[in-house]
Design goal:
alpha/beta, single chain, nine-stranded mixed sheet
Length: 367
C-alpha cells in the first residue's frame, strides 16, 4: 500500500495534469493536432519512403538520381520516346508535407495531358538543396538529358548564402558545417521527437514556443542580427549583413550563368521557377511566428532575382502574382485560407502548390 502511495498516485496525478494540458492544447492549437509526424527515410521493396507532416512519400532512384515518385517505380512510367521535364529543387520540389497528388509537378503533368502535351515529368530534389548542389548534380549527370528537354530549377529565397554558409556535397550526401556539441545531442534525439513525441499536441506546442524563445524575435534590426530575417537574411540583405548579401547574390548569379551554359550546351529549355514565400503576401502574418521583418532588408529579394534573370535572358516562372490575386479574392469573399503550411513561411500547401503548377504550365506552353 505504501508503494502505491509513493509511486502510483504521483504518476497518476502527472498523467491527469498532462491529459488536461493536452486537451487544452488541442482546443487552442487545432493546427498542431494533426499532420505533425515526421519519419526519416526507410527502405521499401521498390526504393525508400519517408513521412513528412503525416504524409507517406515514396522515392526511387532513376538513373542514379533520387526522384519523388508514385508508389510504383518510375521505370514503369518513363517513356523514352517523350521529352522530359526535369525539375531540380529543394524541400519545396521534394513535396514537403504533401502527398504525391498534391505536388505541383503531379498537377503540372495532368494539365499538360489536358493540353495534349505529353512529357515525362521527373522531380529530383532534397531538403537543403541549393544551386551549388544542383549544378553539381547536373554536371555529373549530363548524359540523362536529351535535346529539347526542359530543365526547371526551383529557386528558393533561402538559396542565397555566402560561401561560408553553404551546404557541401560529398559522395552524394548533403551536409552542413560542423555542429556544436549541444546541437549534435539534440539532433540525435530528433528522430524520436518527430516520429513519436509530436503525436502529442501539447509537446508540439512546447516545441513551437521553444523555437521562438531561442531566437531574437524582437528588438531593432541590428540587435536581432540573423533573427531579423532568418533564412532570408542574405536574399533580402538584412541590415547587419548587407555587404555579405551583395557577395551572396554575386555568387548566385555566377552559378545561374553556369547552369545556363550547361543547358545551352545540351540544348535544353531552361526555366527558373521562383518559389514564393508567405512574407510577400497579405494576411499571412500568423505564419511568421519568428517575426521576420522585411523592414530590416536592404535588398528587395524578388526584384533582385528578377533583374538577374531578365538581364541574362533566362526564362522564369513567377507564381507570386497568382498567389496575390488568389489571396485578395479569398479575403474579399471572407474565405481566406493560407497558401502555406501553418507557422511556415517557406512551404506552399496543396493549394499553393496548385497555383505553382498553373503558372509553370503557362511558362512551359509559352516557352
Amino acid at each position: 500500500m505504501k508503494i502505491i502511495k509513493t509511486f502510483i498516485f504521483p504518476l497518476l496525478f502527472l498523467f491527469i495534469i498532462f491529459l488536461v494540458l493536452e486537451l487544452i492544447s488541442i482546443k487552442l492549437f487545432p493546427e498542431y493536432s494533426q499532420n505533425q509526424i515526421f519519419k526519416t527515410d526507410f527502405e521499401t521493396e521498390k526504393g525508400f519512403s519517408r513521412i513528412s507532416k503525416g504524409k507517406i512519400q515514396h522515392f526511387h532512384y532513376f538513373k542514379n538520381l533520387k526522384t519523388r515518385s508514385k508508389k510504383n517505380s518510375i521505370d514503369n512510367v518513363y517513356n523514352e520516346n517523350l521529352s522530359t521535364i526535369w525539375l531540380f529543387g529543394d524541400s519545396v520540389t521534394n513535396g514537403y508535407g504533401l502527398k504525391y497528388t498534391d505536388t505541383y509537378y503531379h498537377s503540372l503533368e495532368k494539365y499538360l495531358n489536358l493540353n495534349n502535351k505529353r512529357f515525362n515529368v521527373i522531380s529530383i530534389s532534397e531538403y537543403d538543396n541549393n544551386i551549388d548542389n544542383i549544378v553539381d548534380i547536373i554536371e555529373k549527370n549530363q548524359k540523362i538529358f536529351k535535346s529539347d528537354d526542359f530543365l526547371i530549377f526551383q529557386f528558393n529565397y533561402n538559396d542565397i548564402l555566402p560561401s561560408s554558409n553553404k551546404t557541401t556535397t560529398t559522395n552524394n550526401i548533403t551536409t552542413r558545417s560542423e555542429k556544436g556539441f549541444l546541437r549534435k545531442l539534440i539532433s540525435g534525439f530528433d528522430p524520436i521527437r518527430f516520429e513519436y513525441l509530436h503525436r502529442s499536441t501539447f509537446l508540439r506546442v512546447l516545441t513551437h514556443y521553444a523555437s521562438i524563445v531561442k531566437r531574437k524575435t524582437s528588438g531593432d534590426c541590428k540587435t536581432r542580427g540573423i533573427g531579423a530575417l532568418g533564412q532570408y537574411t542574405f536574399s533580402y540583405g538584412s541590415l547587419k549583413y548587407s555587404e555579405e548579401s551583395k557577395i551572396a547574390w554575386n555568387l548566385f548569379e555566377r552559378k545561374i550563368l553556369q547552369l545556363k551554359e550547361l543547358t545551352n550546351k545540351k540544348k535544353l529549355k531552361f526555366i527558373v521557377l521562383i518559389s514564393p514565400i508567405s512574407l510577400q503576401l497579405e494576411n499571412h502574418q500568423k505564419l511568421n511566428f519568428h517575426n521576420y521583418d522585411l523592414k530590416c532588408s536592404t535588398i528587395d529579394g524578388r526584384e533582385q532575382i528578377l533583374d538577374i534573370l531578365k538581364n541574362n535572358n533566362i526564362q522564369f516562372s513567377d507564381p507570386l502574382k497568382l498567389f496575390e490575386e488568389t489571396t485578395k479574392i479569398d479575403i474579399e469573399e471572407g474565405n481566406f485560407e493560407p497558401l502555406f503550411f501553418e507557422y511556415d513561411t517557406n512551404h506552399p500547401n496543396s493549394k499553393g502548390s496548385l497555383l505553382i503548377s498553373i503558372t509553370l504550365l503557362d511558362s512551359i506552353l509559352n516557352f
